[in-house]
Structures are given as structure tokens and as C-alpha cells.
Amino acid sequence: MGRPRADDYGEKQQLILDQAAVLFADKGFAGTSMATIAQFCHTSKALIYHYYTSKEALLFDMLQSHVQLLLKTANEVLQKDTEPEIRLRALLRSFMEIYVSSHAKHVVLLNDLHWLPSDQQSLIRDTERGVIKIFRDLVAEIRPDLNEPTRTGLAMSLLGSINWTYIWFDKNGTLSPQHFADLAASLFFSGAKSITDFR
Fold first, then answer.
1. Domain assignment present for 83
2. Structural domain includes residue 96
3. Which of 11, 62, 181, 183 could make a disulfide contact with 96, Cβ separation 3.0–4.6 Å?
4. Rounded distance between C-alpha atoms, residue 15 and residue 33, angstroms
5. What's the rounded Cα separation, in Å, for the pair 21 and 43?
């Protein structure tokens, strides 16, 4: 019979994920050892291995949980009974909040996914494609007259405007995540009104 999990198992596992994300974002996945993670978490390397059999297993859990949160959030916004413009603004606000609160994990997703085995990369990219589809579906509701390549371009441009904010956005600055999300939405709506199909 297996040893029962401690009541705080999930809490400790989340702490390891959060702390490892900070290290990966700062030093890179290749530049961070399990021993360094253990030291940063003020625990033993043996305890880290109790939760994760390898550094790759830790990275996969970190990234998979992050993209699943994005997809879950996007689905929740999509299902609201409001105008597509309102849902898109809400989606941008929700994503900016996640990007700021999970800054390190987002950095790792953009920079270190390639360290995972190809099958695990595919699982994460499949989830990312689900997120992209939701953006594309909202754009399609807003501009149903445009062809699919043009709508895809608009959706990817909008996603790009928030995905790379980790490079410059200061969560302690005067511009809040919500204000920037609204700014990105306003720029999108202003531009989307004048877009015609590219052939």
C-alpha cells in the first residue's frame, strides 16, 4: 500500500513550481539545477525529487498548468452572454492579470518550452491552439465579413500585443494591467474597423 499524501502536499508542490519558475525565468531552464531549486525553496533535493522525478517533469507540470489556466479563463469569458466586444475586453483584462500574477511562468513558457520532449511540447501547443481559437472566434464575431486568413492575422496581432508585455510591463508602475488591456482593446477595435481582406 502506498504512503498517503500529506495534507499540504498540493501546497508544497505549488510552492516548488512557483519558486522554480522564478529561477527558470531568471537563469533559464538549462542554467538551473535541481539542487539550486531545493536551495531556493529552503528544502532538500530529496524532497524536490519526492514531488518531481526530473527537472523536465517539473517544467512540464509548470507549463501545462499555466496554459490550462489560460484556456480555462478564455472559455469562461467566451461563454458569457454579452456582446463579443465586451467579451474580448474581458478576455484581455483576464489574461493581463494572469500574465502579471504568473509573470515567471509566462516567461518560461515563451523561452523554455523547447527543452521538453516533443510529445509534451505537442500537448502544451495543443492547449495554446485552443486559446488562439477562442481569440479567432471572437474576432470572427466582431468582423464576420473578413476571410479566415485576415481574421487569424488580427487575432494573432492582438495576442502578440499582450504576450510580450513581460519584457517591459512594470506591475508597480502607473499603468495597471487592466488599463493596458483596455488600451490594447481600443487600438484593436479602432484598427479592426478599417481592415479589409488581404489577398
1. yes
2. yes
3. 181
4. 17
5. 16
